[in-house]
Each structure stands twice: as C-alpha cells, then as structure tokens.
Amino acid sequence: MAEGGDIVELRERMARAAQLLLYKHHMQPGAKAWELRRALGRDYEQVLKLFDAELEKLGLQVKRVSEGEASSESDRYYVTLRGHPKLTEARTFGWRIDDMAMLTVTLAHILSKQGKAPLKEVERMLEEKFPRWRIESTLDRFIRRGYLSEDDEGLLYVGWRARAEIDQRTLLGLLLGKEEKPSEAEAEPKVETKKEEETRKD
Amino acid sequence: MPGERQETLLRIIDLCDTVRMRGLDPFDVEVREFFDRLRELLPKLRKHEEFYLDIQAVLGLADVVFQQGEWIKHKSSLLYLDPLLITLKLHALPPKDLAGVLARAWHPIVQLESLSPHGIKEAQGYWTNLPPLEERWRGLETTEVLTGEIGRRELARLGITTEEDFAAVLDRTWRDLKDAAGVRGALSYWDFISKRSFEETVALAWLVSFLVTYGYATLELKPLEEEILLKPLAKPRKLERVATFSVPIAISRAEWLQRRKEHG
Description:
The complex is a heterodimer. By secondary structure, chain A is mainly alpha-helical. Helices cover 55% and strands 12% of the residues of chain A. Chain A folds into two domains: 2-83 and 184-196, no CATH class; 87-165, Arc Repressor Mutant, subunit A, CATH 1.10.10. In chain A, helix 1 crosses helix 3 (44-56) and helix 5 packs across helix 9 (168-175). Chain A starts with a helix and ends with a helix. Mean pLDDT of chain A is 83; it is low at 179-202. In chain B, helix 2 (31-41) runs antiparallel to helix 3. Chain B has a three-stranded antiparallel β-sheet with strand order 1-3-2. Classes of the chains: A mainly alpha, B mainly alpha. Chains A and B meet through strand 2, strand 3, helix 4, helix 5 and strand 4 of A and helix 3, helix 4, helix 5 and helix 9 of B.
C-alpha cells in the first residue's frame, strides 16, 4: 500500500511539474530551479527526470538553461522539442524563410565574435541580402521575443530564447557544412542527476 | 607638454574601448608596452584631470587583459570557429539554405497560455468595480501638449501599425514602382502617386518617401520643367557615402484635384 501511495504522490508531482513547465506564468515560459524546488521538493531533479522520460514518448524534452557557466538556482527549465522541425514545418509555425535566414546570420555572426556584435555591423551584413526596412523590424522582433538581446551600447547578444531553443554548436557546424550528430549530452535527457546524487550522499 | 600627455592617455583609453565595444582581437593591443608608457608618464602628471585619465587608461588596459582571458577561453571552447570562415559561409549561402541550418539546430519551446480560476475571479472583480466609461471620462483632467513626431517603431510598439504589414506593403510598392518605370527606368513622381482618392495618393506618397529614404529609389528634380522624376533602383543603394538631402513635397487636396482633372 505504501508503494502505491508513493506512486500516486510521484504522479501528482509530475503533473505539477508539467503545469509549471508548460503553462506560461510570467513573461517567460518555463520555471526557475528554485521555483521547482519549492513546488516539487528537494528531489525535484529526480521528478523532472521522470517527467522527461514521459515527454520523450511525445518527442519532447525537459531542458535546463544556465545563465553562466556554473549551474545555479536561477537556471531555467523549459520543455522543448526533442528533435528539430523540418523547414516546411517551421514555416507553418509562422516563420518566413527570410526571417529564419536572418536569425541564422545574426546568431552565427554573434557566436563567431565571442558572443557579442555591434547592431550596426549585423545590419550591414544583413543588408547584402535583405531590404533594410525588413531588417530593422525583424531584428526588433527577435529582441522582443528573446532570440537576441541588446545593451545600451548597441551591442547584440544571444538572447534567452535562442539559448534555450537553438543548439549553437550544431548551428555553426551545419553552417560550415559539417553533419553534426547529436552530442551525448543532447541525446540524453537534459536534467542533471549528478547534483542530486551528491545531495543524497550528504 | 601637458597636451601630448593627455592625448597619449586618451588614445590608450579609446583603443581599450574599441576592443570592448567592437570585439577586436584583444591581443592586438600591446598591453605591456602601454603600461610602460603609463609608468613613464606618471611622475610627469600634474593635474587632477590627468590623474583621472591615467586611472581610466589603467582600468581600460586591465579590461583588455580580461578580454584576452575570455578570448583564450572562447578559442579553446568547442564553439570556436574562425569568424572569417563563418562570414564567408554566410555570404555564400542563399536564404533558403540558411533557414534550413536554423531549422536543423532548432528545438522550439513548448508553451501554453491559460486562464486560471484565480485569474477569472480577478477579472470578474475588476469588471464589477470598473466604473462606466462615461463616469471615468467625466473626471479626466486634460493637458494640452504640443504636437510632436512619432517613429514607425513607436507606432508599431503601440499597436497602431504592424511592422510585418508595413514591410510587405513597402516591398509591393517597390515592385509596383519598378513595373511602372519599365525599361525607361524612370517615371513622373506625380503619375506614380496619383490615385483615385486623395487618401490613397497621400498614403502612396508616404510609402515612396520610405523607398527613397532607404535607398530603393531616387528622385530627380527638374526645376525648370517643374517635374520630379522617380527612379526605382534594381538593388538598394548604400547611403553611407552618398550625399543625401531632404525634398519636401507638399500634397494638397486642391493640387491633387487639379492634376486629376488635367490628366484624367
């Protein structure tokens, strides 16, 4: 009976995790590590790992995105597609081919420049292939949607959404004509378990 | 030579700013040499302003050293690829291939929007407590403000226009202009903008002003003939090294009516 009760409790916690990660609560989708810890308990990473296994059946995954190099309580978890959409599918999401091309150029340029590039430089680069009026509005939209961020000195950075949605290594690899196989880290669920084990030992 | 000292300090500060702002290779800066120069200058500094500049220069050089560390970290990371190679690829690939690259590296976020029972209750409370419009307007104090200018971005932000629509309309106008100009490559400004209604005419003139501003068409003024020629360009012209000037063209309803009568 105790085992049955545990399973019911675990299911309830997974349902709570689904609500937190799938429904938009604030300006950004997903939930922060500390929010999940508060809602799901100290072993929230274990719950997320099980939730990720359930999502795998639907072609989705739980993804953790860190702001810096080290993981912290402000890291954010999202649910994303496990694979990638086909180009024709991406167009049905409301994306134009030109917009996707512009985002590729912008991100690749920023990444090749150590993660930041002047807005003017990016605009000049895009002007070779796209009309200027479209560039201005499209870059604005990318900034609003979180694919890019801009500081008060006019420098562009990779935004929170691009960090969550775009595999930067694959993007650059494909651009240079390399066929990238998904890395081990990508193939495996993104939920970290090492830390959980360490905590348990404590 | 206080002027020379200040100039040296300012040049060092400027160089450090350029590295930080424009992402130049920080190893191009001879940090050691500059520190030696600063050491030589220090005993000669007299004014507060010079000491302040000296501090700025030292901080700038320290930042360059930090950038060098970041540069090494980036180069040794898996993400490092030669920027030149990337740039060449970006130039060579057509938009469709570039879009394909993004699609294959893309894992869109799944998100849902919903209204919770709490949200519904809050909305109900708001609706119940909201006084009628008539009542709210009655008490409004208004202040007269001078008219100003509003940019397209601001209009879009306020939801008055959508940028997507504007881009599409501008694109279509450019194509129409090229078709209308034909092989001659030019046509009368008034012939192009003149439409059945005055409103349509003004709207088209407004769009043409954007085409000219962005370098997708040019205007040729013939003051003796009192004619304005509009020339669409096959490719947009970069305006950075071209001398540009504004041409105000007034469009009054009376003039529009007269032209409609004359030209049918």
